[in-house]
Amino acid sequence: MTISNSFGISASALSAQRLRMDVISSNIANAETTRASVVNGEAVPYRRKMVVLTPNETSFSDHLQSQMGNQSAKGIGTGVRVKSIQEDSTELKPVYNPTHPDANAEGYVLMPNVDIAKEMVDMISASRSYEANLTALNASKSMLMKALEIGK
Question: Which residue numbers delimit the Flagellar basal-body/hook protein C-terminal domain (predicted)?
Fold first, then answer.
């Protein structure tokens, strides 16, 4: 693994965590949105979205080196990528409010399946992951700078 690999790994993680924060912010902003879209003349509430991360596939040369028995090539990380942004399939919350414009005949309004406490925990997790990857990036940069100073 070269020093540039560590930059790439950290950069991919920083991008993924930034997108995760954006999606969490969108969830919090739409926690009370009862009319995210209209389907067949009926209001459809906002559904919570989640970011699915997956490891980057290793390159062909990494697979080749691994199959040829080069032990140093095994286990090399190549970062993460966003596989998809999926809607949470948990049930929407029915709330009794007959005066709401989106209430059904029984007086219930379907509210988004966004739990603010869960979103805040996810936001803290994404923020800490971002900070950890930034620290790793700065450590790699510092090591590279020290290596360049040795050559002076």
Answer: 106-149
Q: Within the chain, where are the H helices?
A: 3-29, 60-67, 116-150
Phi, psi of 73 (to 5 degrees): -85, -20
The answer to whether 35 and 45 have CB atoms below 8 angstroms apart is yes
CA-nearest of 46, 144, 28, 27 to 102 is 46
pTM for the model: 0.79
Task: Give the model confidence (pLDDT) of 37-68 as tens digits.
Answer: 877 877 789 999 999 998 887 666 666 666 66
Tokens of 21: 């924060």
Q: Which tokens in the block code for residue 88?
A: 């949470």
Amino acid in position 38: V
